[in-house]
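Letters spell out the chain; backbone shape is given numerically. Both lines appear below:
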Amino acid sequence: MTRNPEQWTPPLIAVVGIGAGPRTCVLEGLQWIERAEVLVGGTRHLALFSDHPGEKMPLRGSMKSFVETVDALARRRRVAILASGDPLFFGVGRYLSKTLPAERLRFIPGPTSVQSLCAALGRPWEDVRGFSLHGRESSLEWMWFVRRGHAVALLTDEAHNPRWIAEHLIRAGWDDLCMIVGEDLGLPSEKISRFAPQKVANSDFSPLNVVLLCPSTPAEDGAKGDLCCGDSTHQNMDSKNPEVLAGSPSAFPEMWEACPNEAKPLALGVPDTAFVHRAGLMTKREVRVIAVSLLRLCPGQVLWDLGAGSGSVAVEAALLCPLKSVWAVEKVPERAQDIRLNVRRFHCGEVQVVEGDALKAVDRLPSPHRVFIGGSGGLLTPLLQTVWHRLAPEGRIVVAAVTWQSLQAMEAFSRSQGISLEALQVQVNRAVPIGSTVRFEALNPVFLCAIDKGANTRAES
């Protein structure tokens, strides 16, 4: 693969990250663009090179058809694809590198919007976790990293804009988190502003923006050089309505309050007393730990918690693993409100509460990879049938059954599907004080059952 644009011949394709435009495009990138016979890119990108003598081809249609067109064109002519920032940072480069041979592609990176924003702030960015919401399905996986104390950068689009981000932060109890919004970076209209989420939820922004979430204040991490929430010296900072935020994000329940973010333990077995719940209607800690282990969670998955009660399983799962989204479905309004309180208490914004009957509600939810059924209202079999239809390939269902009838329903369903049933009984005895010593008090026994959609061999448990 040549690195010299003067020696460029088809079928090599140049993929050039132009940053915010010609002014921020690196010299090497401009040299490849100058040699191109065809420029391919978005309408906005092509307009920045209106004086270029080559043919301009707007990026339209699906990525598959776009790559097929470019592939055929590049076999006869020198084609340069224009991309924002770095094409290999949540850009077109990922799809191109999976579709075309490496020897057909020459990538020339430009500064990303995240890089440009941090440079404007004078903030090192090696610790920033980047996520793209642009042109993708809604994902709240980034919430896990905010909760762990990371600075998080979000690439936005029309649907997943700063207001959408702020609304999810507010629901999760991040009322005083520092949000930095960079608009039109690299352009004459560039503006960088700091806000509390409540301010962002009532504001409008340029469609060209990137959001940086900073969970700590200068007083807490000033030694690290983090300038997230202090006064910035950037000349384009919005001086009409700057938001300088004081204080720190609401803490986890008291057991974690004294822990710095980087020292907070991964949650597994959160004490029952840490949750808001009614009359003991929750999956107890010991059972919850085993249930979550049976779910076999992986990052980026969608989890349903049906008959969620207090939402303890949904919260514990969210604390343990960066999930795409968690849907806690509860038909009793008072319990649904408890889940909302626990979501705020633990800052688990990826847990979304759905109030209603599970059989009806699941039709509106994204297809799950994992499902926990904590309560079925006596309708376990039809609920299993509905969930099974929606479950992703290789998905897994875990059911907490407290009655023999529920266990029988699980066994009958697994037999009807020709799959194996994993089942166990959890019997817990807790020590309670009695005089100067302790005695052991039994909790109600629970059956935990698990089935895999990808399984095809039935075995006895």
